[in-house]
Every structure is written in C-alpha cells, then in structure tokens.
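G., the chain you wanted modeled:
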Amino acid sequence: MSIQSVSSWPILRHYEAPFLDRIALPLGGIGTGTISLGGRGDLRDWEVMNRPAKGFAPERAFFAIRIKEGDTGKTHARALEGPLPFNSYYGGFGMIAANHGLPRFESSTFDAAYPFGQVHLTDSEMPVTVRLEAFNPFVPVDSDAGSYPAAVLRYVVTNTSASPLDVSVCGTVRNFIGRDGKLGKEAGNVNSFRTGARVRGIEMTSGGVAKSSEQYGTVALVTPDTDTVVSHRTDWEDVSWGMSNWGMALLDFWDDLTADGDLTDIAPSGVANPTASLCSRVAIAPGESRALTFIIAWHFPNRMTWTPAKTEGGGCGCADGECEGNGDNIGNYYTHRFTDAWHAAEELTANLPDLEARTVEFVETFIASDLPAVVKEAALFNVSTLRSQTVFQTPDGRLYGWEGCGDHDGCCPGSCTHVWNYETALGSLFGGLSRSMRDVEMSYMSLPSGMMPFRVTLPLVREQDYGVAAADGQMGAIARVYRDWKLSGDETFLRTVWPGTKRSLEFCWVPGGWDADQDGVMEGCQHNTMDVEYYGPNGQMSFWYLCALRASEEMARHLGDADFAAKCRKLFESGSKWVDANLFNGEYYEHKIVPPRKRAAIAPGLLHTSSIVDLDDPQLQLGEACLVDQLVGQYMAIVCGLGQLGDPAHMKTTLESIYRYNYMPSFRSHFNHMRTFVLGDEAATLMATYPRGNRPKRPFPYFSEVMTGFEYTAAVGMLQFGMEEEGLTLIRAIRDRYEGQKRNPFDEAECGHHYARAMASWSALLTLTGFDYDATTATITFARAKSQTQWFWSSGNAWGTVAQTPEASGTAITLRILGGETPISTVALTGDGGATVADVTWDTVDGAKVGRAVVG
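Predicted structure as tokens:
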C-alpha cells in the first residue's frame, strides 16, 4: 500500500512567485543535519555531513514525473519543480541553476506550517496536478521523534483528465559521499539496490572514503510504498561509449524514463560518484489522487569538534577553515540510534503514520491558537533552527549549539551563553535537551572560582579551555537553570547543578569582579553579547544581574539555604533601587562609563583580549544610547515568572522610548557602517540610537545594525507591558523582511544563518497567553481572556491546550494534555486584578487527559 497523508496538512503561510525564490525549509532531525526544500520544489542546501553547506547539492539531485495517457498514448515528462527564477539561469554558457535543462511545471506555489512544506505544481499542458508534501516529524517533548536523519517527500498526483494515466515518479541523487560542499571528494562510491523489510530502494556507500573522515557515511533513497512498480538505476554513466561526456548520461536517463516509465539498470561504470535513480509507477484513474512516497536518509557518524585557542579570551573560533584537522571526533547521537542510513529509513517507515499524525496534531493545535498569525509564524518558523546545523547532539544525548551557521562552517562555537540566553523555544518544547545544556554550563563549565567560560570547548575533558566569562551570559545561565527546574520540578537536576549555579553568582563578588563592592549593581569589566566590554553600570547588564539574583533567591530558599537567599534578596533590593535612581534618565536607562584605569583592577577572566582597550578612556561603549535590549533581563524575569526587577513605570517608559527612537519604518536614509540585515523601505528596529546626542566617537560596534533576536526581545517587552500594537508592529516588520523573495522565512540571520537568538520569537507566544508553569506546586497560569479563547501551551515536559469560556460565575477552564506528562492540580488566571486560582478536576475523555475548573 501507499503511505497516504494522515489528513490535509495545516497551513499557516501561503507563498506565490516571486516570493518563492529564497524559501528553503530544512528537512531533517534535531542534530542530524538537513536537506532544504526550495520554494519551487527543488532540493537545496544538502547539509548532512556534519557542517553547514549553503548552496551545495549533489550535481544530480531532482525528482521527475513521466505520464502516459491511456486513451491517446500521449506522453508527458517534467521535473517536479516550478519554473526557475529568471536571474538563476540567464547567462548563456555559464548556467548556474542545477538541472537547468529539464522541463518544469509552469506554475508553483508553496504552503508552510513548519515542519510541513507543500509545493503545488500545475501546468496547462499536463493532465495532472501535483502536490509535494515534505516534512520530518516534530513532536513537542519527544525529541527522539524529531531526530530522524531523513527527508520525507510525498508526491500526491491528481488525474485532472478524462483518461486513465500511467504515472511514474522518479528520484535521482548522485552518490556524493566524501564531498560536503567545502571539503573532501568522492572515492570508490557504490550504489546498490535493496529490498528491505519495509522499504525498497538504493543504498549508497563508499569503499574509498576513509571511515574516519567527517564526510564518511551512507545515504539511502527509498520508497516505503508496497503497491507500486519499482524500477531503478544504480549508475548513469556507460563509459563503453562515452556517455559521461556531452551530457549524454542525462540524455540516456531521460530517454529511458520517458520511453515506458520504467528504468533499466546498467552495469557499474566504476566512476567515483555513480548516480542513483529510483522510479515508482502506478495507474491513476480520472479524478483519482495517488501518493508516491520517497525517503532520503543519511548517516554520517564523524562529527569533529571546534578548537578555539587555549588562551585568555581565545577568540570566536571556527571561522571558515579555522576548525580543520584537530582530530577530535565527538560523534553524533543519531548515528548511535541507527546503524546506517538504510536502518534509519526502515525505522522511520515503521513509525511514520504515528509520527505524522502526532506532528499534524501538534501543528494544527498550535495554529488553532487564538493569537495573531504573525506571532505564530515567528515562533513556529524559527524553531526550524533546532534542526539546522546550528544544533547537534553528542552520543551521550547532550545538546550543543553554534551561535549560527556560516555557509560552510559553524559560526561562533561553544553553546555561547550570551546568545542562547535570549531564546525560550528549547525549554518550552524539549525540556530534557534544555536541561542538558544547563548541566554542561553548571557541572562542567563553572570553574572552582565560579567563572564560567561563555563558550564550552569539546570534548568535555577540555570544557574550560575558553578563558573569558560574559556577564550577561553567566547571569542568563543562572536564570535559565531556574526556569528549567521550575518547568520540570526535577529535584535531582536542581541539586546537581546548584553548586555550580551558586558559584556562578558568587563570582560576581570577587575582587575586581562585576559587583566587587556587593551593592547589587554591576560596575566592573563586563564582556557581553556585543563582543566588547562595558565599563560601569548600564541597564542591559544590571537587569540580567537582578534577574539572576531573584532566580538564585528562589532556588536557595527551596533548597533550604536561607542565608544565601537572604543575601540575594538584599542585593536585589539594593541594586534595583540604585539602578532606577541613577541610570533612568526620564526616558530610558543609560550607561554610566566608569574607566577601570588599571588592568590589575580587572579580575582574571573578565577581559577579552580581542577588545581595543584604553583603560583611561575605554572605547566601544554604550554611553547615552537608547539600546534595543536594555531590558533583556526584565524580559527574561517575566518569562521565568520572577516579576518586576525595577519600577514598572520606568520600564514602560523605556519601551515607549525604544519604539519612538529605535523603530524605523524605512531605512532608505539610514547610514550603517557594519553588516546589512535591512535595506531600502523595509522596517526594522535599530540596535541603538543616541536621541540626546553625545554618541561616543567609537561606540559599541553594532549600534547601527538590525538583528532579529534583539528586535524580538524589545517586541516581547512591549507585549509584556501592555503595548500590544507596538510589539506586534516590530514582529510584523521582521517577518515582512523574511517573506521569501529577499530572505528565507526559515533562516533569520545574525552572525550566520539559523541564528539561535532568533528563537526569542517564542516568547511572544508565552507573553500573549500569559503562560507560566511551576511543577513544584503543580500550578499552571494563563492570562485571563475576555472572550471564549483557546491557546496552545507547552512546558517542555508536556503540551496541550487551554480553553477559556467566561461565564457569570467565573471563567470555565478546560485543559487538555496531548503529549508528555506533568502534574497540574491548580490553574491560575492573571489580569488587572491580580491572580485568581482554582483546583483542577481531571478525567479521561476519548483517551485524552482533560482537566476542568472554574476560576472566579
């Protein structure tokens, strides 16, 4: 039988030409690498060999359809892609589009609701329409379900004619094992046709690529369909008459396919990179639709580690070419789950109906939330970053990440704390993976002194080789320990990481440290996410510190460390009062520059050697800037349920100032001396402005730029303080820029593609629903809705829906747990009058856990 789609797939965003050109939806699992689905149905960016590979695809990689009309015998053949954009192929001899000579469908559109991508192909000369359904399973809480190294491609062919049709769909992939788009080459590659327990297809192996190579592995091109006629080729090149020259191999393949809809295999040519083709043929009656499913699976076990220099400060590490040849093979989690690509395809096929149904349920539930479409798009499309080469898992299951991806290398290694601080998607969706990152930070990266390098070095025996702490990164890591513990209620986790967490806060108080005088204010040398040091107190670092103090207070109190909790509280109250009194200038929070004068006044591990330092007159400072994320600590405190860190009136005024001074509806007149992420009449929110003048001659480097992760932080801050129109304006401006024509909707860039900070977009969902969960008290909290409302929620350990129906006696609540497990005994609703709570009564309805309560 054919594996049909579970139901019609959900759609969140529809794209038409010319907004198809940049679409590249990643198809692959968490930590496995991906192949991207292009907007016209092409497969691009084959990033499966342990590194990014933007623009790389095997020389031959495409799907095609051949049709024969039963009444007339007329045949048709097309690549299963829409038309090429004009600028991708014009140029005469130097054609740059892959497979440019193949006929294509005359029209295509794209529907997306990550992880689902659907390409609709139509052609006035063709007796069919085709819908390509492409995805990889993605289920909240169940990270293994979303970690298959494969792309599922289902071509749903509908006969729109009055004639019965003989239809063949054929997939072609050249065996590229050994070549990752930057390094290596094919050697002794072999294609073999196999019939397995659940799939039929071609297994690609290599007898010449070294088994220790990063590019060594296996690939499988298979079909799980059992009711189709399958034919194949394990090679295209017939060297006996020079078919590899003058395009004759392609001509011979096309003639073979179009002649009768079946392929005839040829003898192996012995070329290093033979081409594999797999064809599946069915009969389709008038008006009937048939699905033909293919799976491309891969298995590349040798992931090599990064090697930032072992010096104080080190460096960002791993720019293009910087990480080659170090010999540290740290491996991949997914390659320990599956023995090879064929095994992965077999296992995925065995579980595909269930995995697809669960993925559909998640996405349909998410989309059905009564929230602005742009909020759902920003949150859902950015979780694709978790499946890009930005993220990987080592064999022990721990998750690590780059900041983002260069075209051919990871961009800035080591699960950088000051970047990953901003995102909230991972902890909300996959709590176990998030806790694994906290464990690395607090159990391995935290030195006896409490100094935490803001980049972990792998393998973990070298975890502390990177020699600099980031003030924001270290404080944010403490806040995230609190959030991950509260969401999970995992007492063992908290007790395991608490010693490192406590040391990390105490490090603030060392001589020459961030808060050496222990007044609750950071004044010392503060390396941070702007890749510079701030000298003197400022809102950005101050609120991170206050957030960490509050988080530590709560954890210490829970663990019975009353003295430490009291100290944290005292410092918090002192620092909060001082910051409001001394840094708020009536419109926003300023940076008071305090030169350190002497290097000896700076504690070891705080100064990054790459910075330009005049200790009497430090450069690269904020000064009187209105900074886009000056309230980032407050943003995270509210996400964590830690409340207000300062005067709420000052906070709101600051957000109003960010909107007034930093948001720009057009950039035609804007000068930018750095990187360009916004152009022309596009709208965006600047990193910093100087509305009162007094800009330092050499301010921090990124002040004239725009970066989406920071924009989301400001936007969510506005939502948190009741500025919904302004916050949604900022989010809408981002997604309008990533609209498919100029930029990929699934790749918000900063220092590299698929940048981790952009997953801060998830926080808008948390804010508008008012979601909070405390597993230690089994209490789930939402904002009180004014009308009948249904929202999606996820705690990282369970997920489901909440429905609110206002009634005369109160608000009727219906909770559903659709995946995972977590205790919920009390529901709270927050609003202008504070929070009201009620007990939840649970029942099982049609196999689902349903809880009900009435909140007065």
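Residues 551 and 564 are 12 Å apart (CA to CA).

Shout if anything looks off.
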